[in-house]
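go over both lines:
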Amino acid sequence: MNVFFRDFFSDPVLYLSFGLLGVVIALCIYYVYYFVKKVNEAEVPE
């Protein structure tokens, strides 16, 4: 297990991949929040 952490912090491809994956997931969460907020604030035509 110690070898895994040593390789993780010494390999820029790994933490760059996880960083970009984190950014993509954060953007997805933001757009879901934005969509739900807009749907809740929408006016219902009578």
